[in-house]
Amino acid sequence: MANAVRTRSAQSVQEARVRARQNWKRLAILAVALFVVVNLARSVLPTLGVKTPLGGQRPTSGTTTQAGTPPPATAEVNGVKVLGSGAPIVTVDPGIVRPDMPVTIVGAGFDPGSKIDIVMTTGTGKKAKTTPLATATGDRYGSFYTTIKFPSNSTATDTSTRDITAQQRGAKKVAKSQAQLAAGAAGVAKLSAVVGRPGDTVTLTVSGFSPGEELAVYWGRINGTPGAVLKADSHGAVTKVPIKVGVSAVGTTSVVIVGQKSGAAASLPFQVLKLYPSIALKPYAVKAMNPVGFSGKGFVPEERVLVRLNSAGGAPIMALQTDGAGAFKSGGFIVPYQLKGAQRLVFTGELSGATVSSSFSVLPYMPMARTSTYGGSPGTSISFYGSGFGANEAVHVYAAKGKGAKPQLVGAFRTDAAGGARAVGRYTIPGDAGDAVLFTLVGQRSGGTATVTFKVDNSAGPVDVAPQPPYVLPPDLQN
């Protein structure tokens, strides 16, 4: 019996020892698990989006960009190495940046409550240049999260990388990351229509540019004066902004949008249709020294329209400015006396080259004249009345004694502003006038001609009328 008791006691002691060893193993596994979890929280989670926003002051002098060599990993979870020693890391989001765009910098593995200077390094060796970006404060896990505006002191053609360094003050904890400039990268653009005429309105939407930068819009080219200048929003985009279709060659062309700071560009194909402007003349028939007015539409907005006479080339007689709708209205011009018959005005857009013509007629002057009396005996003194001549023009009076006789200049007078004259000039019917005197009145500017016949009564014999001296034309009645 005693032997049986001793055997059961020995078994109980053995089982207790086994249970103790199992408990120690469980505690060891639990300690390792806790160690991994804590270091995951301190090192990995901040880089996965766990944000602890902190700001700070600009870094002070003495900042270094020399990063120490991180220690080896001490654990591996699902194939991912975890820096169990708390070695610092820093990330830049996004990694491809543009000047003035928001950039998020996340760090982990620094001392809790420590000050971390964040700097950017350009170049290498003696030519390296360091630019302070921000100062962050480590949270209770030694992590930080801050957002900055990426510096704009980079040229539009610079696509090199920038070293982003996080340096803990008073310690050797340093971490580095890189950001690559996307200057000159392609933006994205969209138009509400891909077919139109110069001057039509379309809406433009673009993205992928630097925040707040000016965007130059070109039609069919990439330099010179832009057709429009837009301003990108804080995301480097513009949305459904109305713009005018610019002047370009008819057919397929390109719309090019260029960021004036980043150098980023976007382009779209666009089909430019031919312009078909129209002209309205008023009146279509007019006498010289009267105005011809005209209006036009269908040209490019804000372009000059050159007006030429009877030709598409040569010197224009005037230039008209279109409004924002590509239209104009003009009082026209005064038709000169030199124009006779059918005429044509040619209108050409100075920028667009769009051409349209319209015709009008210059009517001849057809004046009327009469003498102060329709007939009389030789020796009768007469004067003249006229209408329908040119305004303020000289009218020369010719007399022919008898049918087939050669006319002689016998007088002259000047019309009034309406082209008329009353009781002007003096002429005495000579004794050898025969049975009639034919008078011809000729406007010296308009070319208008009027005739009137004076009936000479039969005198039944010779009439003694003193001959008139030859008429001398005064200089002021030349024309």
Automatic annotation (TrEMBL):
<feature type="compositionally biased region" description="Low complexity">
    <location>
        <begin position="59"/>
        <end position="68"/>
    </location>
</feature>
<feature type="region of interest" description="Disordered">
    <location>
        <begin position="49"/>
        <end position="74"/>
    </location>
</feature>
<protein>
    <recommendedName>
        <fullName>IPT/TIG domain-containing protein</fullName>
    </recommendedName>
</protein>
